[in-house]
Amino acid sequence: MGVIVILIIVSVLVAGGFLLAFLWSVKTGQMDDDYTPSVRILFDDELIIKKKEIL
Amino acid sequence: MVYTLLEENGMCQYYDLTSMPGITAKGLFVSDKFNYLDNIAIQDQLIQFKLADQVHVVFYLPQIHCVSCVWLLEHLHKINTGIIQSTTHFEKKEIKIVFNPSLISLKQVVHLLAFVGYEPVIHLGGNDWLKKKKVNKKQLYKIGIAGFCFSNIMMLSFPEYLSNNALELGSLRHFFIYINLLLSLPVLLYSARDFFISAYTGLRQKWLNIDAPIALAIMVTFSRSVYEILSQTGAGYLDSMSGIVFFMLIGRWFQDKSYDSFAFDRDYNSFFPLGVTVLEEGKEVNKHLSALLKGELVFLRADEMIPADAILLTEGALIDYSFVTGENAPIEVAIGQLVYAGGIQKGRSIQVEVVKPVGQSYITELWNRPVLKNEKNIEKSFVHPWGQYFTIVLLIIAFSSGVYWSLYDTSKILPAVTAVLIVACPCSLLLTVTFTYGNVLRWLGNAKFYCKNAAVIEAIDKIDTIVFDKTGTLTNHEDTHLEYHGMVLSEAEMIAVKSVTRESLHPLSKMITQFLMLEVSDLTSFQKIENFIGKGTKALCNEYEILIGSISFLKSNGIPCDDSLQGAVVCLAINGVLKGYFAVNHAYRDGMDKMVKRLQDKGYHLHLLSGDHPTEKAHLTHLLGKDIPMFFETSPADKLAYIQKLQNQGHKVMMVGDGLNDAGALKKSNVGVAVTDQTHLFTPASDVILEGREIKELHHLIAYAKKAKLIIIYIFILSILYNIIGMYFATSARLSPMVAAILMPISSISIVALSALLSFSFSYKIRPRS
Q1: Inter-chain CB proximity A35 and B148 less than 8 Å
Q2: CATH says B478-587 is which class?
Q3: B317-320 and B344-345 as β-strands: parallel, antiparallel, unpaired?
């Protein structure tokens, strides 16, 4: 039974890690803008050069 | 030109991203416009952070609207190497630019932005209002912590529920319970703080607000749980407690989510330019607007705003006051006359001498009136009295169940009374309200009706009178057309007039030429033409002697004119006979007559206030019906006084207006609706921002906002049912933690779902049709 105690403590600690990650993300402003990053990630700079070569 | 620039830098992807990038690049523009950015004091107001080799600055770019915008703006460093980095915030429509001041100046950065079609909006209020709008981080922390604690407590409570007391878990059981107790502490002490603070401030003002029963429920639940855990009689209701706090925090967050890119609280500072060009000993000097003194000479280029009341010194002033007075057409001003702050110069460059400081000018002075200082919509929500009744009923039930059990089984008094307080928390009521308002705000926003906050929806519900402004509200600023009134002109006469007006660069002349172009296409030559600047034109064309210009111009040439022909009028006389006049009208928006009719059918009192001349009264009466009281030539102060008069008669007033001339009335009214065609520019302080072409849907929008209350009542009935079930368990002293733990999420989730469903289904009339 003792192992359950350890597992529970570990699970709460892991969950706590995620909580800390969330708090950190809020603090560093990652929640300020929930739209632009989703657009920004799709911009692909390499693509243009290739296109130019084809043309 | 812009395409060449993009192509040179290998940035043609811009055109691939969306088939219609949509921004019309302005190309090279009058490069003097931003000269004031060379002024150090102005720079300091804009710059956020400064080092020797990098400067951080944030601009507001209302033109941002699509993926291509973001792409182009974030690749500015490819166009100019002086720009180190540019980051956009799509929803706030902002761009943060880091640039190297030794390679590119602030003014050049702005020029670059304007060149690619994103001219930043820079105003006297600086970017102060941008800084105010920060995401409420504390609220997110509270939600995160409550969510973490709630989910863990819930999980650790499962063994307790599922064991059904048959499985003795021994010391493990205590371990789970104590961890739960530990996890519930941050919820009680941190996440739920706002409820306690609000309840406490309410009580100190001898007033029982909606947070009071919630704070009570949280406290009772926690103390009973602690008692059960310490006395080893049970596991307590810690999961329900943290769940309630978690759901209610989410509800609040949902309701408070606002429109980041809108500013509802602008005052005149936001409308005026940041800097002005002052002439000092014949030289142009850029000055900060607040440093502008009486007696200084200001140089105004075309399309610049007059910063303070001033006297005109040079010729060619053609001032568009539509924003200040609601007057339709630009007005010509003679040398030596006063020009008022807020007017926009439409002609060529002029010089004016300032006679009043910025803060004391005709239009800015309105803001300093005490009637406008009061905050509005601080009336308590209709839910709050319910909260009070709820608390009273709750206490009565708790008390009577206590009395009942004292007669039969004294050991059950405490469990029954505490269980009543735990189960009957008004959180379902609060959840209903916050989520419903959140949903309704969102659907209204979808229909381009942006409310400042949830209190506005309740205020709309009470409205019985709607006051409209004419220019820019019922009419469209951008869509002007000319009307001719008077004797019918023969074709030859029209050709002659057109040939004459074609020679003048005056905007009204150009409009007349275009107007006649629709009728006749030929041109003829004229023998003699004489232009009188600011008055009119006299010409001899074939057999016609043409006089065209203002009323006073025709009078001075001996032609009898009717003084009633006021407003935007150009008179025309041929061979000494007054033929008629041209009037400038802004076209009425579509569907106004229908919208007005529907609103009247619903019993609203409608009024019309216009700053314009009554030239269109007959047309308006025809369009809107006879029953609407109409007032013309009203000043901004008159409009304000009229709203106040209606309010003193006990009416709740919605003001629908657009310009600075309505600003006082918008602020004074119970609900101020600012109508705008460019959503992000020039909206005076208001409660609601409405996009111009949606004004025809106003009756639907109001009806939908009123539905919010109905939805809340429906769901409230449902939550009463839940409460009755809970009460049945509680008063019979049989509320097990498991029943509480099942009832709480089911009621919360079903309420949230029903609120979303109802607000969606009621919104079918205002949903944009695709």
Answers
A1: no
A2: alpha beta
A3: antiparallel
Q: What residues form DSSP beta bridges with B574?
A: B546, B577
Residues 6+ positions from B130 with CB-CB distance below 8 Å: B58, B60, B92, B94
Nearest residue, CB atoms, A31 vs list B10, B140, B183: B140
Task: Give the span between the Cα atoms of B770 and B754, in whole angstroms.
Answer: 26
Residues of A in contact with B186 (CB under 8 A): none
Please report the pLDDT score of residue A53 as a whole number.
44
DSSP E strands, B66-219? 83-89, 94-99
Q: Whole-angstrom Cα distance, residue B467 to residue B12?
A: 49
pTM of the model: 0.75
The tens digit of pLDDT for each residue in B190-227 reads 999 988 998 888 888 877 777 888 888 889 889 989 99
As to burial, measured by CB atoms within 10 angstroms (0-12 exposed, 13-18 middle, 19+ buried), residue B444 is: buried
Which of A27-31, B120-124, B271-275, B381-385 is most confident?
A27-31
Q: From the list B13, B70, B148, which residue is nearest A48 (CB)?
A: B13
Domain range list for chain B: 2-132, 137-253, 272-368, 448-476+588-705, 478-587
pLDDT in tens, B351-402: 888 888 777 776 666 666 666 655 555 556 677 777 778 778 888 888 888 8
pLDDT computed for residue B10 by the predictor: 54
Q: Can you give the pLDDT at residue B186?
A: 93
Testing the interface with B: which of A24, A35, A50 to mutate, by most B Cβ within 10 A? A35
Task: Note the CATH architecture for domain B272-368.
Answer: Distorted Sandwich (2.70)
**Cβ <8 Å between A34 and B70:** no
Mutation target for A interface from B172, B249, B253: give the one with most A CBs within 10 A: B172
pLDDT per position as a tens digit, B110-133:
888 887 778 777 765 545 544 554
From B10, B135, B176, residue closest to A31, measured CB to CB: B135
A12 touches chain B (CB under 8 A): yes
- Alpha-carbon distance of B418 to B399, in angstroms, equals 10
Cα(B175)–Cα(A1) distance, integer angstroms: 12
Which class is domain B2-132? Answer: alpha beta
CATH topology assigned to domain B448-476+588-705: Rossmann fold (3.40.50)
Q: In terms of DSSP bridges, do strands B350-354 and B310-312 run parallel, antiparallel, or are they unpaired? A: antiparallel
Task: Tell me, letter by letter, the H, E, C secondary structure of B565-585.
Answer: CCCCEEEEEECCEEEEEEEEE
Task: Tell which of B68, B70, B142 to mutate to test the A interface (max A CBs under 10 Å).
Answer: B70
Question: How close does chain A come to B753, measured CA to CA in Å?
Answer: 24
| Cα dist from B429 to B211, B425, B436, B593, B755, whole Å | 11, 9, 11, 40, 12
Cβ–Cβ below 8 Å for A48 and B12: yes
Query: Which residues from B are below 8 Å from A when comparing CB atoms?
Result: 10-13, 67, 70-71, 74, 87-92, 134-135, 137, 140-141, 144-145, 148, 151-152, 156, 170, 172, 175-176, 179, 183
Give Cβ neighbours of residue B727 (< 8 Å, ≥ 6 apart): B397, B420, B423, B424
Q: How far is A50 from chain B (nearest CA, A)?
A: 11
Q: CA B510 to CA B474: how far, in whole Å?
A: 25
